[in-house]
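Course assignment 3, question 2. Fill in each field.
Student: A.L.
Task: Predict the tertiary structure for the chain below.
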Amino acid sequence: MRPMSTTMLAALSFLILAIPAAFADVHEIAKSNGWTAYAGRSEDNRAMCAVGATGGGRWFGMKYFTGDSALTIQMSKNTWKLRDGIRVAVTAQFDDHGKWSASAKGFHMSDGDGALEFTIPVKSIDTWVDEFKNSQRMIIRFPGQDIDDWQADLSGTENVTGPFGICIASVLMTN
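Answer field:
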């Protein structure tokens, strides 16, 4: 783990104080190598924190919503033709760490793209986020489905997960 600079610690301390007042809209709180951390409110007006990346018609994000006991993982692709509510087996792997397995639910993003969503239980969030931020690549597979595997470059995730974690801590403190 890399030590934080005094400037980074000061900026993160500012975020802890500023985030509760700044939840009026979703806004960027950190960005690095295509990965962005956000803070704001969901469509149902719950405080939320998120990290995501987009490219090549694909989007991947992880979100924490106030009151939830899990981290929500969402992914979409502009060419997916998914039925809302369909269940799809998903595995995710960070570098050479063990595989994560889930049953994802199909839905559509606000732009109409087909999407899948699954959750990481509260007891596993720290491990998921640690593997995400300390790995170089993520591979997502869809066993038994006619969906191409995904590979994502995780360079920069170590710079957005700190502010993401601080956002979550701030949301938890305001509840």
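Instructor remarks: The CA atoms of residues 58 and 83 lie 18 Å apart. The longest helix spans residues 157-173.
Grade: pending
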